User: What shape does this take?
Amino acid sequence: MNLSIVVPLYNEEESLSELVAWIAKVMYDNNFTYEILLIDDGSTDSSWREIELLSKEYGAIRGLKFRRNYGKSAALYVGFEAAEGDVVVTMDADLQDNPEEIPEMYHMIMKEKYHLVSGWKKKRFDPIFSKNLPSKFYNWTARCMSGIKLHDFNCGLKAYKNEVVKSIEVYGDMHRYIPVLAKWAGYDKITEKVVQHQERKYGKTKFGIERFIRGPLDLMSVMFITRFGKKPMHLFGTWGMFVFMIGFFAAIAVGAKKLIVLSQGEKAMLVTESPYFYLALVCMIIGTQLFLSGFIGELVARSGNDRNKYHVDKEI
Assistant: This one.
């Protein structure tokens, strides 16, 4: 099979039939063998009913429905597990991603041997202050921290070699930083393609103001996991030893100062009367805690990482 097209959706009943027809036309025109995986993320409208009807009309549709809303990352995770095509394409269900871009992205994966091709919405039809400017800031930050030269990390339209999606784990809101996860997994042939962005035709965006908080937090989580997820002692142990040694030598300095004063025949104050003694003690305690955190992190890392379990309620 050439293509698996993974479409996470939440309350998108109005756009589904038009989206599927558009995808099917592009696939037919390019003689692709394909499947469309519609992942219903616990929709409260008639989206699942629409998927049932479409599955009877189009044999290439596979539908998966969550019992409740888990989020886009969970939908992508389940879609990636189910995908069977040589190339896996993700796109949003709101008709803002153009299926006409898929053939070129497919050829970039298969012929130019890229691991991941990310869409770049160079011209956007989103509100400037609520989406465009925050998106530019987050993308700039992600470029600086990850070293991956992409202009639009959060673009829903992406193409992956199948083995890439089978090698990464997407959870929380990590869908924004899948290229970082892919690079960490060893798939560093990553590029981007300018794609056409469409105005939203139906409904409204499902992402609220909380994404401004979650975005940077998820970026910090991704950077920590990719650098220290398998070796937490390298971070906590290093800082623990550094802080502990500061406290240790500070305590020695306080004691040595008292001995010097006593050797000169003068009366010295108690070590416990010096504020530096307590600062040194705090540093040694914090250093020890950091070091022990590294040990605990190593135990957790060695015990394996149990993947999130998402409850699929229905499947077509």
